[in-house]
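Good morning N.,

You mentioned wanting to compare the apo and holo forms, so I went ahead and generated the holo version with flavin mononucleotide. This is what I fed in:
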Amino acid sequence: MILIQGPLAGISCAPFRALIWRYSQPAYCYTEMISCKTLNEGSAALNHRYVAKDPSEGPVCFQLSGNDPQELAEATKRATDYGADLINLNCGCPVKKIRSKGAGSSLLMDPQRLFQLMRAMKQSTHLPVSIKIRVEGHGPDRFHQTLVQAIQDAGIDSLTVHGRHWTEHYETPCHYQHIQFFVEHLNIPVIGNGDVADFASLQRMLKTGCAGVMIGRAGVGQPWLIAELSAKLAGTEFLSPMLNERKQMFLDHVQGLIALMGNETVSLMQARRFAKYYARRLAWQKEFQDAVNLCETFKELEEISSRYFI
Ligand SMILES: Cc1cc2nc3c(=O)[nH]c(=O)nc-3n(C[C@H](O)[C@H](O)[C@H](O)COP(=O)(O)O)c2cc1C
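and this is what came out, ligand included:
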């Protein structure tokens, strides 16, 4: 079974992925979404955060966002040169700023244009090219059939389906029947995505018949999750990390960010986005997050972490 750590803007850069590889063996991990304009026009320094890979990492899928065939073709070549192992087009982002540029989930409204983008990407690299979509419409219908045709005609290598419409928030449960539709109508691997956080939810996703499963939010603060799920699939025992190991993971994540970005203050601001996930299911999760929000130096962060993770 293929297990993948998915893209999370603001989180899934090299230090996060290196932690996943330290504890798990995913098929591959994603970068954060990279705008093809930024990749094509930005300086090496500007792009560093998005394209940097850690020496300890396995395969990385670079996720691009854009809506122009030529720009995407150029960005695909650049991603290939930067050392991507796979390349993905974001067709699921629901954020207004991205949709208003005609990118992200808005690409699903025009399968003919999407076909041109996918073909331009395929023609610009020797690497596997995939797309990641949300679902459209109210059920597996004619629209999805058109999408299936465009994906097949473009020669795309795999499809990831996050089983929600772009207007739906995380409170709406994943629509497994839409994922199953793509599994049944495409002859390429379909990766199911949405709400997988433990073995029970993994089994629900596997009922769609998908060839692989992508983990999103649940991987943050739990870099061992893919290893745990793999062990459960294999029927072997898995020992969850102890509190002091979890503390070290959090600190290593932040220290990795400081090394990557060369800026302690910016890295500490970013740590505020994910600190609480390292304290999942712990009674003091909120207090810990509040304390992290006040930290101004890495040394303070170490002291606070030592106070909580005991
Ligand atoms: C903070 C955050 C950032 C995300 N960034 C991206 C992104 O850059 N590209 C993308 O395709 N999906 C992105 N997603 C969506 C996830 O990759 C995933 O599809 C979604 O969270 C559903 O999976 P999950 O239920 O396992 O989290 C993001 C989600 C979150 C919560």
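Residues 6-10, 32-33, 63, 90, 92-93, 132, 162, 193-196, 215-218 surround flavin mononucleotide (CB under 6 Å).

Happy to go through it together on a call whenever suits you.

Best,
F.
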